[in-house]
């Protein structure tokens, strides 16, 4: 029997400042990693440690706020699914996730209520007791958006398409979202230790920063779960369902989950989701014949239908993860 792989591939972005051969090497590594695993470590991305440390300091400051401050920006008050979710407020596959988090997304004026996914546009709930918070978060959004767009161009090239294939989808009102997440420790006997349950990300691309040294992330590979302890200075990058859609399944959105850290510890992470405008539909790539032969089609799961229109896919995920917000603000969309 083949042994399960022990880790994810590492893809080094500094190859892009090399010669043509180095750039081709980068693209081949990017394509292979996302075809085989849907996940990889990205090094050489150029975002300094001091900036990453500042982000984690900001996350720590937020989670250290008194509950009354956190509750004042609670997601339950936000029809757009922005703000703070306390422990027990979020569900994956019908089971409670043991994490607290704040969701912050790009802010655009509303374009109306129909189709229903347009309801996701709107304001964030900013914690006003932290004066630097907004600036740090918006800086991070800007850096990750630039990185995300650069990666999208590399994917397009690696799949035999023009570099700007995806640019239009991200040019106007990109729906970027980031979460500051804190997973508290659980004792060994805790029945499930579900930090976040097994799921695929509904969007295009996720740039995940994990607190140095903190394990817990697991990525599905065949019938196995691969442990993914963080690699120093690297992002964990994965693709979401819309990239699977765009490539007819040649690139895979992969199930992943987080196991709670040991009792007496905690784990912070900051996933950044790079997504197009709510109303945009991902272009489908005409793959070269050798790649098309390895494209099995988009996953056909009646419990999780993948739409190519980002807003539809995102709304599905939001209603499922936050049933209390859905029931309060969108009763017409849930039964
Ligand atoms: O916290 C992590 O390491 C992963 C979180 C995640 O997969 C998600 O929020 O979609
Ligand atoms: Fe995820």
From TrEMBL:
Homology family: Belongs to the iron/ascorbate-dependent oxidoreductase family.
Q: Which pathway is recorded for this entry?
A: Antibiotic biosynthesis
Q: What is this protein called?
A: 2-oxoglutarate and iron-dependent oxygenase domain-containing protein
Q: Which Pfam families match?
A: 2OG-FeII_Oxy (PF03171), DIOX_N (PF14226)
Q: Which residues form a coiled coil?
A: none
Looking up PROSITE patterns in the UniProt record yields: FE2OG_OXY
UniProt cross-references to InterPro entries, sorted A to Z: DIOX_N, IPNS-like_FE2OG_OXY, IPNS-like_sf, Iron_ascorbate_oxido_reductase, Oxoglu/Fe-dep_dioxygenase_dom
Query: In the record, what lineage is assigned to the organism producing the protein?
Result: Bacteria, Bacillati, Actinomycetota, Actinomycetes, Mycobacteriales
- Domain (Fe2OG dioxygenase) ranges: 173-276
What are the protein's UniProt keywords? Answer: Antibiotic biosynthesis, Iron, Metal-binding, Oxidoreductase
Q: Would the keyword Protein biosynthesis be found if you checked this record's keyword annotation?
A: no
Q: Which SUPFAM superfamilies match?
A: Clavaminate synthase-like (SSF51197)
